[in-house]
Design brief:
Elements lengths: L1 H11 L4 H5 L5 H10 L5 E2 H8 L3 H13 L3 E5 L7 E5 L1 H23 L3 H19 L6 E4 L5 H17 L3 H16 L7 E7 L2 E12 L2 E9 L8 H15 L4 E7 L3 H9 L3 E10 L2 E11 L1
Parallel strand pairs: 7-8
Antiparallel strand pairs: 1-3, 2-3, 4-5, 5-6, 6-7, 8-10, 9-10
Helix pairs in contact: 8-9
Length: about 300
């Protein structure tokens, strides 16, 4: 793949994108203009996720485009922490020009190919897109912890939330305390931790711990990005809920944050209900904490 990437970026002139298309825009700026031209306006976090850009880099790109009069930013009508961005009329004209010249560049590239070669190329590109976009296929196993798994839980949580949400070391320290308390003395009849394996590799975890005699708490649900789309999160939550019910608890609760949208969908599917929300500043970010509960 790396060899192909070097070949293709050289072939299309990606390193000299502006010169190749005769425009003043970098490759990232052109991608932003293209994505914004697909709809009326877009939330900045969604744009960042779509183009997979680092937050600071995207902010600089938007600032340059805004200074050039190509984009406008405004506050979200219901969430003041989020900004919306959209193209100006000049921005849409620039995006249309980029799109036209991109089509011309691709046309020049494939014009030299015969019909059979074009068909082979189309099939190969569709195959690559299909293989790389589909979830991995494999076997999910949910099991109890083995030596080394507790350290993996701490490390995986710290690394994942730092990478995806920019949370600082405070979160990893919190996870370490939770895992340490569990390791130093838990009641196996009423508390447990599970590891999800996918193709023999740890890719997820969840804990059930005692809140009080009648209430269990679900903690540290995690699914690695490489295993998402395979039902790992649902398997882990089901395991936790079934254990809590069999252990004699009357309800199960959890605390999460509103930015964890994928986890919230899993909780909703299993019957948890949102009962409270409260803004807080933790892990280096302004967040909205949420309390969820489900009767057993």
């Amino acid at each position: 793949m790396r060899s192909f990437n070097r070949f293709y970026t050289s072939l299309i002139g990606a390193l000299d994108y502006a010169g190749r298309l005769g425009t003043p825009y970098s490759l990232t700026e052109a991608r932003v203009l293209y994505e914004l031209n697909q709809q009326e306006r877009t939330a900045v976090p969604r744009l960042r996720e779509t183009i997979r850009a680092e937050a600071a880099h995207l902010s600089r790109v938007l600032a340059r485009l805004e200074k050039a009069g190509l984009v406008e930013r405004e506050e979200h009508p219901t969430d003041r922490r989020v900004h919306l961005v959209r193209l100006t009329r000049a921005g849409r004209e620039a995006a249309a020009l980029l799109d036209e010249r991109s089509w011309e560049a691709v046309g020049d590239l494939v014009a030299r190919l015969g019909e059979g070669q074009r068909r082979r190329l189309t099939e190969a590109l569709r195959t690559a897109e299909d293989v790389l976009s589909r979830p991995r296929v494999g076997t999910v196993v949910v099991r109890g912890p083995r030596p080394g798994d507790l350290g993996w839980v701490v490390r995986a949580n710290g690394a994942l939330y730092a990478e995806q949400f920019g949370w600082n070391e405070e979160y990893e320290a919190l996870v370490a305390r939770i895992v340490g308390d569990f390791a130093n003395g838990h009641d196996p009849a009423r508390e447990a931790l599970w590891i999800a394996e996918f193709d023999g590799e740890p890719v997820g975890c969840v804990m059930c711990v005692r809140e009080d005699d009648e209430t269990a708490r679900l903690r540290l649900l995690l699914v690695a990005p490489t295993a998402r789309g395979n039902g790992v999160g649902d398997r882990l939550v089901s395991q936790c809920v079934c254990f809590a019910r069999e252990a004699g608890y009357r309800e199960i609760v959890l605390w999460t944050n509103d930015v964890l949208a994928a986890a919230r969908k899993i909780y909703e599917r299993h019957g948890f209900e949102l009962v409270a929300e409260k803004p807080h500043h933790s892990f280096g970010k302004d967040l909205v904490g949420q309390d969820w509960v489900m009767a057993l």
